[in-house]
Design goal:
This protein is α+β, with helices and mostly antiparallel strands and about 375 residues long. The chain has five helices and 17 strands. The protein folds into two domains: about 260 residues, Immunoglobulin-like (Sandwich), CATH 2.60.40; about 90 residues, no CATH class. It is elongated, with a radius of gyration of 37 Å. The termini are far apart.
Length: about 375
């Protein structure tokens, strides 16, 4: 009996340990997956304005983000925007969270150098990417790509630190602006494609080489992930700690592993696929078919009239006629680069001018005959 009771007690304890984890698994529903990244060049001034070329907003929440390091519920929400052009990849984020820890210096928190290097010691938004899935295809599934780590400092200053490749502060290379909000903080940033290509080559030990044109000219895919470091002050230890880390993981990793069971910051588990949309062309180019105006001549027979407009007759009573040459000019339609239906309008005007010329020539001839 004691044995059965002991087994039952152990089973209940084990189930109790699983309950928080199961609750977290239920929160996560699916990866963010495929989202569009439009061509545009937003102004990096800290004000996220839709009219500047940003994409539609992508929510970040517990339905598409996993804690990955324990049973603590996901408490960070936010919005993500993106855009690109031939020189930069642009990202913007608005983060909502219960409390925020401003950064003060480089990361000194114990344990954060084991596979994770967020650069700064406060709250950090990390953006990591694999352009055109080159690292994945080269076999780097269990490795980490370059991290661009954005931290907010006192005075609404956003600074950028790069880790896992060419480590160090890169605020002078990656322009970023932002500040505190009533619910958290936000920022905009422009990451040079040239920098991305060099960092990808470094992180792959030279196995993967890219050029900005390869990435931007063919509407490729950028597989990426957001990693958020939620830093808080621990009154018991009298120190700042990493309260949690949240990652936009894949539903199912490339190797078939469930995202919630994988190491979330590895390339294998990236859960965002940004599709680079081609540059919009707002003009319709029509081949130039401009030709010179055409003048035609025609000879007609007309009756000769006197000053009063009466027909002149000969001695036999027959009406006197004469040969008259008339000329008319036809305007040709002019086409070229156009944003609307102006070619048809031009042609109509040309026809009107032609008829006007014919009419004018007829009127002129009659007036001449009358003056005679």
């Amino acid at each position: 009996m004691k044995r059965i009771f002991s087994m039952l007690l152990c089973t209940l304890m084990f189930c109790g340990m699983l309950m928080p984890v199961a609750a977290e698994v239920e929160d996560f529903q699916a990866e963010i997956g495929n989202i569009d990244c439009p061509w545009g060049a937003p102004t990096i001034d800290g004000n996220i304005t839709d009219s500047e070329g940003w994409s539609s907003v992508q929510p970040i929440n517990k339905a598409n983000t996993d804690g990955g390091w324990g049973a603590i519920p996901v408490e960070v929400e936010g919005s993500l925007w993106r855009a690109y052009d031939s020189e930069y990849l642009y990202i913007a984020a608005d983060i909502i969270l219960p409390e925020i820890s401003l950064c003060e210096e480089e990361d000194w928190i114990d344990g954060d150098d084991v596979g994770n290097k967020p650069g700064w010691d406060g709250d950090v938004f990390v953006f990591t990417l694999d352009p055109l899935n080159k690292l994945r295809d080269a076999g780097f599934l269990s490795d980490t790509s370059v991290w661009y780590c954005f931290g907010i400092f006192e005075g609404d200053v956003i600074r950028t630190y790069r880790t896992h490749a060419n480590e160090g502060e890169v605020s002078d290379v990656i322009s970023a602006k932002g500040g505190l909000t009533d619910t958290g903080w936000h920022f905009e940033a422009a990451i040079p494609w040239d920098t991305v290509c060099k960092d990808i080559e470094e992180v792959s030990y030279g196995d993967v080489t890219l050029t900005p044109a390869e990435i931007t000219d063919n509407g490729g895919e950028i597989t990426c992930s957001m990693i958020y470091y939620d830093r808080r002050y621990d009154p018991e230890g009298c120190e700042r700690i990493t309260y949690h880390r949240y990652v936009t993981i894949a539903t199912t990793c490339v190797d078939g592993t469930a995202g919630i069971m994988a190491t979330p910051w590895k390339i294998n588990a990236y859960g965002i696929h940004m599709n680079l949309l081609p540059k919009a062309d707002d003009t319709t180019t029509v081949p130039d078919t401009t030709t010179a105006d055409t003048t035609t001549a025609a000879e007609v027979t007309e009756v000769v009239t006197d000053d009063k407009g009466n027909a002149v007759t000969d001695e036999k009573g027959n009406k006197v006629t004469q040969k008259v040459t008339t000329k008319s000019t036809t305007k040709k339609a002019t086409t070229g680069t156009s944003t609307g239906g102006n070619a048809a309008q031009t042609f109509d005007i040309g026809v009107a001018v032609a008829f006007g010329a014919l009419a004018a020539s007829g009127i002129g001839f009659v007036a001449t005959k009358k003056r005679k």
